[in-house]
Amino acid sequence: MRMSLLHISDLHYLRDFRGKGDIFSSIFERMTPPLEQLRNLCSQLDTEPDAVLITGDLTHSGEEADYRALRAGLFQIFPHASFFAVPGNHDEGNAFMRGFLDLPPTLEGYFFLAPCHDLLVAGIDSSAPMTPDGAITETHCNWLETALRDAPPLPVFFMTHHHLLAGQFPLPPAVYPKRMEEMIKTQQIAALLSGHTHHFYQGTFAGKPYLASDSLSFKGINLGEGRVRFIEQGGAILYTCENGSFSVKRILSQDEPKILGQLQL
Length: 265
Description:
By secondary structure, the chain is of the alpha/beta class. It has helices spanning 25-30, 34-42, 64-77, 93-99, 138-149, 178-186; strands at residues 3-8, 51-55, 82-86, 111-116, 119-124, 156-159, 189-194, 201-205, 208-212, 219-224, 227-232, 235-242, 245-252, 258-264. It is 22% helix and 31% strand.
């Protein structure tokens, strides 16, 4: 069966981007809203994707009303798609559960493994309050090992928010136990998906395809000495899956980036 998955990330959605009152306000005021960037990007799709995979930072401030508004907007754009999402460091776990997933909050952490046509989608919350760059823990590994042991033998797309490779981006990658690499290498993981950096990346992790999506908000370019230039060039990744394999296509919402401004961080 042929199917398509659209990987999006880092929308930093707000119902109102004006006068947010934080350091990013001047950037937000010039930025095209993320759902509009997504609509521009969708003009390049032949058909609606079967599923939309969101690798974190759905909202900028983690407010429940923003999650509800974002979910409604996404359903308008993709009325027939399935949605799978993990939270990021800008998300708030309880508000994400209630507002986006319409589920009660849990004290056990957020994990999921769900069917998606001829494959499985798995996700964990890699946000960690004491580890700003994210963490995959022994608890995550134990859950994934148990979930895969009991799962049907289908390819798995595994989602985190934080990136995993040193040197992929100036920010440090998430920390994770050594056993995670062995699990990824030996289990039925078909691909690993992340966000957080706001920049596209394609490589391998533990011998498996590993991809980070562009953002649907802004991108930061490090100029040195704490100076960051912000640009807008929304992007996503389209995966076309058939007969146990998949192809990858990066899609951008505009050919040329739009300069949003520069901040001293």
